[in-house]
Model the fold of this input.
Amino acid sequence: MFFSRPVIALVGFLSVTSALVVRTDDTGPTATATSTPTPTPTPTPTAVPTGVFLTTKFLTVAGHTDAHATVPGHTITLVLPTCIQTEIPDKNGFVPPGTCHALYDFYPSFAAAVLFSVLFGVVTALHIAQAAKYKTTFCWVIIMACFWEFSSFVTRAISTKYQQNAGLALVSQILVLIAPLWVNAFDYIVLGRMIHFFLPSHSILGISGSLLGIVFVMLDVVSFVVQLIGGSLAGPTAPESEVFKGIHIYMGGIGLQQFFIVIFLGLAARLHGQLRTLERNGTGKKNWRPLLFTLYASLGLITIRIFFRLIEFSAGKEADKNPLPFHEVYFYVFEAVPMLIALAAMNVVHPGSVLVGPDADMPGLRTLLCGRRRTQNVRMEWNGMEVKNKAAYSRV
Done:
């Protein structure tokens, strides 16, 4: 008798557990509160959907009642992304846009991707050779820009032959979206070096060329991180809600990039005016125009590319209202060509051929900070000497 109640409770618990039935139903919740099975209605035939969409599934746990316990029924609703492959990929893996596993909104051109791979490869090789010739170590930044563009189009060329490989498409997309930030950073570095080289004060608006370049490069890094996060979220296989979230983050990043460019152009225009004044007075260095105009052109080309991306991403995904995402020619005209020209322009007017002489080497961040500390220490020592001299003079 001592064990009768626990044994009865255990038997009741096992009977309840064995009565639980889990089943799925795509048509809606049809849960019952008893273990008596109910007939499943015959689904109405519908057209097979294509593309990526959401489906609702219901997990139903049937209820059970006996002399010892009552367990009510419970239905769990799950909304899951799914995809039904209804199109047969061609030899390159292409399926029509909007269908399942479609990575491109157009048929990508293998020849165009190979052509720009070769062009960016040539520009990359030239920048490496020029950096070695002029011994300009800071040119590693533009070499990175060239290499990322080159890698993007090589990956794109491979992706055109393997269009069911989402990894290739994602790598190509991220590289081409982020590479222009390296060009931007290089422009900031070159203008800082021009301020240090051409202006006797080595500063503009009270800011040294070294510090100015460092500040804008750090701002560029902030924009880089934001765009990288957005580009990663908006992958070709991501759910639609995730894609829109990534696009909004990326648009914020390139908007931030353009804001920094506008401020930077104001500083470049200020430098332009000061160099013209020095030239009229006969006290300034010459040969500054080609490099400064190349900077203007580079920033202008980046701006064209930024506005292209803003319009492409903000105008929606309807072909009749926004043709940009659905025709590859727009990508090459407003993305690939501007970046190629911006990089090649620096081959034609290389900073190493202009910034030659004693002021060509700009102090780095560590030297800049140490120099400021030494200046502050000298000022403190000088102020201390003045105080001692005044005290001695007053005693006399």
